[in-house]
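Below is a filled-in request sheet from our internal design queue. Each sheet records the structural input a requester submitted and the sequence that came back. We keep these sheets so that new team members can see what a complete request looks like end to end.

REQUESTER: design group, bay 2
PRIORITY: normal
MODE: inverse folding
CHAIN LENGTH: 202
BACKBONE (tokenized):
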């Protein structure tokens, strides 16, 4: 019987796979002895444990994969939401900057410049009097040119300085926002303008 079972076993020379009848014959051969019965019981128990471990390992790998996918998806959603929020903030900042500059253009500096304009008129009157009494015309020309430079310079500096401070403030805010950009591709809303020189030549 044992020889017959061996001939039907997977380690025999036959290429064909064993059938259910073959397995039944092998099992019957092992069941004829107590040692064979012990072997079959132990083999079945160990195989059940191995199968359980394989299933648990496979489940653990699937859980790890799903967890990684969920984390990646959550990170992508956070990055997208952050990019959208930053875009909205940049749009609001640019609109606020444009509105502030527009309002600044409408501000009149005439009241603050009134004393300067009055002083310029006095200087020009002095120059005119000097011409009348026969002083050197070149000196009077220099006085007139300096009076014009003071008047134009005071008016221009007042507006330019205000715009430079405004641009610098918004540019600093845009740079701060760019630090939160995941792509690090933010650009300042506006570059700060360099204050114009106010020196008057003689």
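RETURNED SEQUENCE:
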């Amino acid at each position: 019987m044992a020889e017959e079972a061996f001939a039907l076993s997977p380690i025999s020379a036959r290429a064909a796979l064993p059938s259910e009848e073959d397995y039944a014959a092998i099992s019957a051969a092992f069941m004829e002895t107590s040692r064979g019965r012990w072997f079959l019981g132990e083999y079945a128990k160990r195989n059940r444990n191995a199968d359980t471990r394989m299933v648990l390992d496979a489940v653990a790998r699937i859980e790890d994969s799903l967890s990684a996918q969920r984390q990646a998806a959550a990170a992508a959603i956070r990055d997208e939401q952050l990019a959208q929020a930053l875009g909205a903030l940049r749009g609001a900042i640019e609109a606020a900057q444009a509105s502030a500059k527009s309002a600044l253009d409408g501000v009149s500096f005439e009241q603050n410049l009134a004393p300067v304009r009055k002083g310029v008129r006095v200087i020009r009157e002095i120059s005119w009097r000097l011409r009348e009494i026969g002083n050197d015309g070149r000196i009077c020309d220099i006085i007139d040119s300096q009076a014009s430079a003071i008047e134009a310079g005071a008016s221009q500096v007042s507006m330019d300085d205000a715009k430079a401070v405004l641009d610098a403030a918004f540019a600093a805010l845009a740079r701060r926002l760019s630090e939160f950009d995941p792509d690090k591709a933010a650009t300042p809303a506006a570059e700060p303008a360099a204050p114009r020189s106010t020196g008057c030549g003689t």
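SHEET NOTES:
- Residues 185-195, 197-202 have pLDDT under 50 and may be disordered.
- The CA atoms of residues 164 and 193 lie 5 Å apart.
FILED BY: M.R.
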